[in-house]
Amino acid sequence: MVVATPPETKPLSAEELRKMHAYWRACNYLSVGMIYLRDNPLLKEPLKEEHVKPRLLGHWGSSPGLSFIYIHLNRIIKKYEQSIVYVAGPGHGAPGFLGPVYLEGTYSEVYPDKSEDEEGLKKFFKQFSFPGGIGSHCTPETPGSIHEGGELGYSLSHAYGIAFDSPDVIVAAVVGDGEAETGALATAWHSNKFINPLRDGAVLPILHLNGYKIANPTILARISHEELENLFKGYGYKPYFVEGSDPEYMHQAMAATLDVVVSEIRELQQEARSTGNAFRPLWPMIVLRSPKGWTGPASVDGKKTENFWRSHQVPLSGMHDNPEHLRLLEDWMKSYKPEELFDENGTFLAELKELAPKGQLRMGSNPLTNGGLLRRDLRLPDFRSYAIPVEKPGITEAENTRALGAFMRDILKQNPNNFRVFGPDETASNRLTAVYEASKKTWMADMLPEDLDGSELSKDGRVMEMLSEHTLLGWLEGYLLSGRHGFFHTYEAFAHVIDSMFNQHAKWLDISKREIPWRAPVSSQNIMLSSTVWRQDHNGFSHQDPGFLDVVTNKSPEVVRIYLPPDANCLLSVAAHCFQSKDYVNVIVSDKQKHLQYLTMEEAIKHCTKGIGIWDWASNDDCGTEPDEPDVVMASCGDIPTKEALAATAILREEFPYLKVRFINVVDLMTLVPETEHPHGLSRREFDNLFTPDQPVIFNFHGYPWLIHKLTYRRSNQHRIHVRGYKEKGNINTPLELAINNEIDRFSLVIDVIDRVEKLGSRGAHVRERMNNAIIENCNYAYEHGFDKPELAHWKWPY
User: Fold this and answer.
1) For residue 479, which of 161, 183, 515, 727 is within the disulfide window of CB 3.0 to 4.6 Å?
2) Strand 485-491 and strand 594-596: pairing?
């Protein structure tokens, strides 16, 4: 195979090479110790069974390469006084990151009990993948990390998110070759088309090719050098290759290559910043090809181990019933000569520790990796000034998200360096076009003359659009975790693309918030779902799926918040709250089409602050000196379900003047959960006061109906709560026909009330017939004309 060698220089002196290799041996020693040992950390006595953990977890295979990169980046940091953030992509490769963080001193500063001595080293080893300790990823407990890697694919997008608006940083993104096979990572390579050398930092991707996944070779390790080089040139990078296994050669090659690529990065930035010319260069990257399980056992039980998939996880197992493996482990660990690395007290030798940077230049202490320390509150305009005038509820119509776009336009204006909007080619579609008045779409690739006519492209843009929800959310997560603010919006049905990304971020926030006091709070992740299920009648069945909410409700109540504002003023109030919040994932559901407006701004603020409330103007159970208990509670959550529930209420009040109806609207979905299960949940008394303890409740919901049953299952007489929602019935329909198909329409809701309120008696039978006839009539009208009856499509609240 043809190998592209690095520059023919040997930048390391003999003494530097000796020390750097010793430092790396110490890192590898710590990696093995973390995986295997619970005692005898310096091997001062012969290794025994009781010194070894009963369960062996963690991954050895990528750890040597990760620590190799780390110590070479340390050299660059010291040489240039360069701020560098390290993102470790290989999932279970934490030992290769934790070791250097401990040796540089950061770990002991954050966790004083893991001191830089024999006792601290013992605790450091034992905690790894051990009950009560830490996991085998770079979990939130890991200083210097904002990227866990529990799910592969997001290291590169996270790295670019850190680099946006951080002009002085280089983010070294180590991409595992198994990780490189994921779809999320494949799209993230294109992030280089969005980095502006004038105002952003740089990302240095390092593809770590060690050849194997858990039990198979990796694709990029088994294609020709020429094909691999052309692949990355095609992505728009300038690849440098560092390949081999001999430590002396590899140290010199890596040092020489990093000298070149970092100088190139600095020169490219200097050119842009000195001339004011924002251009898209070919950013350098490194392909590091080293053996899997480098420096580990060459073979175990006569089977090839180093440089093969058998070294991926734990090369030696069965330590408590296999004396030969125990002997091999001791020989392996002693091959690193710990007596030359640590003094008698177990402290790393000073002459070696001096290779690490100092203070906040240490990668374990870089402030960007504890972004809450850098975060500053947004300068927010008064959201009240964007209010939609409402003289009477349910009369005027407006596009809810358009008002939000105007609000965010001015947020962008007032926060030009720490707020960005992220969405997959849908900013205009979701009626957020006002943001373009403050900032265009970031675009560093080629532009054509016709792009000036409505494409809203700019090299200086702060609206991030790319047709990859994975990459966008990865950018946002990196941006938030390094101290900034942002907003992500997407079509509701396709939010499932980022289900697992949301899961990972929510888990990170949960652990950080509950268990890690040294992690400062970061800005909340704000996700808006628009182009919602009830207005996807024109796009059909594939675009109809409100199930992202079901996924969100599974996460920790300390982290997740869900809002379904019924109108524009409620949306503005909710958004302003979310933009100021910390350490949450806020999910907002708001459609982009025109909808009825119900509440003045002051009413909306009160309603959203409570999260749930009675709409007196739509209710008639409070009409005397001693109000009657309602005969039925009509509840709604979501914009279209609210309109249909109101229309049903109007029909009921006209047909049954004596029927007492209470109308409740829910903005904050988590108020339905008992207060013992969620901070926003209502107490039993509060819930029963609103919904009564025993009267029928007809709940018209935006999403799948069983979600409401899940949230309310512990409420009084839960069987009385009858929920309507999306039931996977839809295609190319009119809006009302889609509602009818799923029985959230006004006519079906009236029938539900008739079937559940006994006092309606025989009178209800006649109304029921009229409702069934109306359903048939409106479906037939839609089939014939292709639209709904205007008087129903543009229904207003009757006064």
Assistant:
1) 161
2) unpaired
